[in-house]
Amino acid sequence: MRVAIWAAVVAAWLFASATPSSARGPYGSITVGNWKGGAFTDDKSGAFTHCSAGSVYQSGIYFVVAITATGSWRLGFAHESWRLSPGEAFPLALTFDGQPAFNVYGMPLGEKLVNIEMPVTSNLINQFRKARQMTAFAQGQLFQFNLNQTAQLLPALLNCVVSVKKNGVASAGEFAVATKPAAAPPQAAAPNAPPAKQARSGTGTGFVVSDSGHVVTNHHVVDGCSEITGNLSGAAAVKLRLVSDDETNDLALLQAPSPFKDVAKIRQNAILVGDGVVAIGYPYHGLLTSDFTVTTGIVSSLSGILNDTRHLQISAAVQPGNSGGPLFDFGGGVVGVVAAKLDAVRMARATGTIPENINFAIKTGALRDFLDNSAVQYKVAEWHDATKRETSEIAKDARGYTLLVTCKVNEQSAGAKKPGN
After folding, report:
1. Which of 227, 254, 298, 311 could be bridged to 408 by S-S, CB 3.0 to 4.6 A?
2. What is the mean pLDDT of each run of 10 residues along the chain (421 residues)?
3. How far apart (Å, rounded) are the C-alpha atoms in residues 170 and 39?
4. What's the CA gap between 208 and 343, in Å, rounded?
5. In terms of Cα–Cα distance, which of 383, 335, 394, 391 is closest to 361?
């Protein structure tokens, strides 16, 4: 059976009853790398049932991810060699990034397709959202899945459900939605591209976290750099070396050759929805001011896209170049690392509305874990009402430890994936 036909049958079959003809679609499209899909309706009633997308792997297994009209998540696995018994529980062992396995039971839908429920609050879906690799052991076979593209796929599925429920399938288009990094890193050249004639550079933001000169920024700010420098506002640039990085949580640890005078303090207790925040960074460096900028807002949500609990959603405005910068509470304690903003243009094309003030920061829980694993001794701050300060005072202190981070890619390393590799 050709891949296109196989994909269409499985996507339609999922959430249907016993036959492939019970669902109709896809309406619109979801195109994320090798993942293909769209919206589906009930063939008899015409009612919207789900959005799904799938991909065929070299092992011959077809993997599909879907969200129903009611918001429930499901995984589907199919293989042409399978002969399943509908109604009999199908055991699978799912492993994410080498962590302990989840022993789950799927429900066969026909001879070749098995469906697995993933409650929104389950550890299973939380692991799936952030994992880069997944293995599935079923019927004596081990299947491996690369999940690098799920960061783009899952928002696309969610956008599909929201858009179709609001506008109907008649208005369905391309549902893929992306978050823009709030930094301006250089674009790495393709492996076979001609050598660059001159060095290229991009900028982001970082902040000092230890008395030993350690600096935190985003992984995507320094990914692929041949040289990294940092400087405080008005000060000379110093060379920074990459100590460690965490691509999954988008964090990187740098170190200067000598300590800085001032160090940021990381808030120990949790911030709450509605609390005020201050974002400081170097957006559009070279186009706007050469100094850092200061914006304020609130914590809009304690989770990011698709309830990703590693992130905060904030209303403080951020732009390209803010990535890696500190997010403060009104006491001056760091409560997050600015990471991304929602792509307004793509959201407008997909939904017909322009999103406003939807930005994201990495929570300090992930940051503290990252620093602990890197053996960095950082300073902590406790929040209480008496510590509330003026924004100008927070900005004044931040001047001593918030850096412009510059990433340079020279012509010899323009095709490199990451520094140090």
Report:
1. 227
2. 50 48 76 85 85 81 85 83 78 78 79 77 71 76 74 82 87 72 50 46 92 95 92 92 91 95 93 95 78 93 82 90 95 94 54 67 93 92 78 95 90 41 29
3. 11
4. 29
5. 335
